[in-house]
Amino acid sequence: MEKAVVIYDGECKFCIRLIAHLRRFDSAWKLRYVSLHDPQVAIDYPDLSYDQLMDQMWIVDPQGGRHGGAYALRYLSRALPWLWPVAPMMHLPGLMPVWCWIYRQVAQRRYQIAGRHCEEGTCSLHGTKPSTAPR
């Protein structure tokens, strides 16, 4: 069985911590985790621009479907048994726009959120960039 691929910002401390938690929840090894900064990502997923990848986490499912941002979280709520308790909230009719808004608020501030623990300096470097990816 092919694994779904989680593409995340591997230079973001907030994102790295999130992925560490996902790895613990992924006891059946259903997911493969790849930093968007890995050069192979541009080769394997040319339809996802750098700005799109910097804007939000993406999941590429085994069938090739793309799930970004809150939709990626919704995918994870179904894929990982530890997250099943969250799944009903992610699937209530009419709530995805709210989840997308919440996701965008956190994603746009992820470098500021993690910045106080960022020794490499990437948090302040990226933290001032406005989001340019289409929604």
Short key terms for the protein model shown above:
135 residues; alpha+beta; four-stranded mixed β-sheet; 4 strands; globular; disordered C terminus
Question: What would you say this structure looks like, in words?
Answer:
- The protein has 135 residues and is α+β, with helices and mostly antiparallel strands.
- It is 47% helix and 12% strand.
Order of helices and strands: EHEHHEEHHHHH
How many separate helices? 8
Strand content: 5-15%
Overall mean pLDDT stands at 84
Q: How far is it from the N-terminal to the C-terminal residue, by CA? A: 31 Å
**Outline type:** globular
**Count of strand segments:** 4
Over the alpha carbons, how many angstroms does the gyration radius reach? 15 Å
Structural class call reads alpha+beta
- Percent of residues in helices: 40-55%
Please give the order of strands in the largest beta sheet. 2-1-3-4
Main sheet?
4 strands, mixed
Low-confidence regions? 122-135
